[in-house]
Amino acid sequence: MSPYFFWSVVYFILGLIMGSFLNVCIYRMPRGLSIIAPPSHCPECNSGILWYDNIPVVSYLFLKGRCRQCGKPIPALYLIVEVLTALLFLSAYLFSYTVPAIMFKIVLFSVLVLASFIDIKHFVIPDESNLIGFIFAVLMSTLFPHLQSRDIWYLALGDSLLGAFAGFLTLGFVSFAGSRLLKKDAMGFGDVKFIAMIGAFTGWKLVLLTIMTASFIGAVLGGALMLFKTRNLKGRIPFGPYLAAGAVISVLFGKAIIGWYFSFCGIS
Ligand SMILES: [Zn+2]
Fold first, then answer.
1. 70 CA to middle of ligand 1, Å?
2. pTM score > 0.90 for this model?
3. Tens of pLDDT along 138-192?
4. How far is the CA of 66 from the centre of ligand 1 (A)?
5. DSSP 177-207
6. Which helix (H) or strand (E) holds 100?
7. What is the rounded distance in angstroms from the CA atom of residue 191 to the CA atom of residue 221?
8. Angle subtended by helix axes 189-228 and 240-264, to nearest 10
9. Distance 72 CA to ligand 1 centre (A)
10. How far is the CA of 107 from the centre of ligand 1 (A)?
11. 184 alpha carbon – ligand 1 mean position (Å)
12. Where are the domains of the chain?
């Protein structure tokens, strides 16, 4: 077995385990519950979940998506979060050259999944995950300057802070202008703090690309939803998941996209 394949499997499984933990956080954090205690229990019948019923994906399939005690369906969302996190961990490994770079992406992707699913369900992005992500990004950039494509620690630190500032300012301006023009809150301040956290990871170029990509996905998906009328569009649509998707695309393909764009425009 090649080491490449071995580590791919390891990171995929680590992603499944992290996804399982994120499911707990997604359920408990917006409800103000502790994410450590008590151990996992069924939200329907409150009975404890045995360790062999708590193995990511495997247990879900084995139990055919139902609680062993009460037989109530376990939302497919749990499965989706686990598989999605596993795929993101795998791509973090495949798209990185150093261990710190893998860790950097893994933490960012975990925070993005956490914030997105809480935003979808509760229209809020927790300050805790933004703060933890921001501090991690700034510290890691300072300790491992190559994460910001730098040789010197204070330049990498500057890039990380500048990324946060650029994201904060850009989306903050959109939020402010939008609320003035539409006479209602177009975008929550939570999104502005969220993009600042993302910017601390990506630096200023990729945070701007993140906002552009998120707006593009939002426009396309929003148009499609309106076309098929699958959803009542009068309600607020959370922007967090779009920003998260934009961030993943920017982190994995951003350098290629920017390179392509500038060669396309005849600038080199
Ligand atoms: Zn149950």
1. 4
2. yes
3. 999 999 999 999 999 999 999 999 999 999 999 999 888 877 887 666 677 889 9
4. 8
5. HHHHHHSS-SS-HHHHHHHHHHHHHHHHHHH
6. helix 99-122
7. 18
8. 80
9. 6
10. 31
11. 42
12. 1-94, 96-268
